[in-house]
Amino acid sequence: MDSNQLKIFCMVTRQQSFSKAAKLLHMSQPAVSTQVKNLEEYYQGQLLTRTPQGVTLTKAGEVFYNYAQKILDLQEEMEQQIESVFQHENNQVVVGASTTIGNVALPCSIYLFKEQFPEVELCLNIANAEEVLNMVMTDVVDIGVVEGDTESSTLKSLHVASDELVLIVPPQHPAEGDTISLQDFLKQPLIMREDGSGTRKILATALARHGYSVNQLNVITEMKNIYAIKSAVEAGLGGSVMPLLAVRKEAYTGTLKVLRIMDMDMPLIFNIIFSNSRPLTTKAKQFIKFLTNPEESCLC
Fold first, then answer.
1. What CATH architecture does domain 163-268 belong to?
2. Contact between 128 and 102 (Cβ < 8 Å)
3. Could you say which residues of the chain have pLDDT below 70?
4. Does domain 92-161+270-292 have CATH number 3.40.1180.10?
5. pLDDT attached to residue 152
6. Where along the chain do its domains lie?
7. Which own/partner contact pairs does 176-185 have at CB distance under 8 Å and 24+ positions apart?
8. Is it true that 92-161+270-292 and 163-268 share their CATH fold?
9. What span, in angstroms and rounded, lies between the C-alpha atoms of 32 and 287?
10. What is the tens place of the pLDDT at every residue in 131-158?
11. Please, are residues 143 and 273 in contact by the beta-carbon 8 Å criterion?
12. For position 149, what pLDDT does the model report?
């Protein structure tokens, strides 16, 4: 039995559902069910009553749930006390964030976090995904928040949000409805993100699945700043591919038109990344816990 099993059991109990708990924990339902089953085998008894309507605690499960919560609370308190004893306490957390999430979502999240933890000093460095990855690996920042997968054995990764890439165009664009064909997209004048950006990498991967490359796009210029790109698109200079998260306001007000490319899904995930080899401070752990809390929407 480990703390991860306790966390899974408590989540299932609070949600009264394996499927809901699995979704919030970003796990498969069979994996969640297996962890609970392992606990029941360990204690040689049933902890949950399963019905078509959901799950409820047995009498033994109620005892287990109460103690599991106490153990998890004690574990968190212990980690804080140990770090304090070894004088590793540090109120500053340096965060590296890729352009989209760093400019659009994290500033609001930092504000909400500071309301709960005013003593923590958060510093935000914004760069493209590749640069943030390097910052984390060279200990320039404590944690990074980037889009896309990070393939590195020296880093840990935690899911924080899901999104998708869309094509943005001026409101007067002739496309009917909210979609555009892949062939029309290939002809569309585009303002592209620079090499090293997560957005560009995900677009390149999606194009490759259809036998195309970024070099076959009608790119008129490249820009690093998402606000400059949106202004250029609004002015009618071309279209651009960027996360939907970055254009929610403009889509709502009608200053930009959002199109999805037919038969070319571009799902996007945002991950928190941090070093395997360097212990996180209590404050950094607090911020990660705040951003990844599945029962609250802490990412604006």
1. 3-Layer(aba) Sandwich (3.40)
2. no
3. 85-90, 295-300
4. no
5. 79
6. 3-85, 92-161+270-292, 163-268
7. 178/258, 178/259, 178/260, 179/259, 179/260, 179/261, 179/262, 180/259, 180/260, 180/261, 180/262, 181/261, 181/262, 182/210, 182/261, 182/262, 182/263, 182/264, 185/261, 185/264
8. yes
9. 25
10. 999 999 999 999 999 987 777 788 999 9
11. yes
12. 74
3-state secondary structure the chain: CCHHHHHHHHHHHHHCCHHHHHHHHCCCHHHHHHHHHHHHHHHCCCCEEEECCEEEECHHHHHHHHHHHHHHHHHHHHHHHHHHHCCCCCCEEEEEEEHHHHHHCHHHHHHHHHHHCCCCEEEEEEECHHHHHHHHHCCCCCEEEEECCCCCCCEEEEEEEEEEEEEEECCCCCCCCCEECHHHHHHCEEEECCCCCHHHHHHHHHHHHCCCCHHHCEEEEECCCHHHHHHHHHCCCCEEEEEHHHHHHHHHHCCCEEEEECCCCCEEEEEEEEECCCCCCHHHHHHHHHHHCCCCCCCC
| Residue tagged 């980690």 (tokens) | 79
CATH of domain 3-85: 1.10.10.10
The C-alpha torsion from 141 through 145 and 150 to 156, rounded to 10°, is 70
Q: What is the pTM of this model?
A: 0.67
